[in-house]
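User: Good morning. I'm curious how heme C would be positioned relative to this chain. Could you predict the structure with it bound?
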Amino acid sequence: MSDLPKKFRGHLVLLVCAATVGAITSITTAQEKTATASPQITFNRDIAPILYRSCAGCHRPGESGPFSLLAYADAKAHARQIAAVTSSRFMPPWLPEPGALRFADDLRVSEDDIARIQAWVQQGGWRGMPVTFRRSRSLLKGGRSVSRM
Ligand code: HEC
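Assistant: Good morning! Here's the predicted structure, ligand included:
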């Protein structure tokens, strides 16, 4: 190494520096990515809209679901079960196989929403700010028409 031309050694040092800077930059961007990928998930902002759209039509008093999923306390009490049944696609039940056709009252929960529910449970099932969520009028009017897109 010592008898390498001076000029070449200079290049080598530069190369090592560049590699180090590269490595550091990629570590920081990776950290930033994780930080933005897992913001705090809250019931009011993230989870309630999913439950209202896909679950509360049955999971509310007077309907077929064995317990209500209208309020935070209900969802929190069943949080782990909710995460389990959505990821196994046991709930919502009795749907046509996912395919090209979309139904107006398609209750299916998206992969993103399933991940959101998982994250919510893992983070401890936060309630969140009440102002960020308004109950769907169509649901309160009754029936299974939770949402019409
Ligand atoms: C079409 C009506 C209907 C919809 C929509 C529905 N459920 Fe259910 N759910 C039921 C009924 C009926 C049961 C009880 C019978 C059973 O376990 O199959 C049940 C049971 C459950 C259980 C208990 C399962 C167990 O192992 O005992 C959970 C948890 C649940 N639902 C969560 C959800 C979630 C979360 C959604 C929305 C993503 C949802 N349900 C959508 C009707 C529904």
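The mean pLDDT is 75. Residues 1-37 form one domain.
Let me know if you'd like a different ligand tried.
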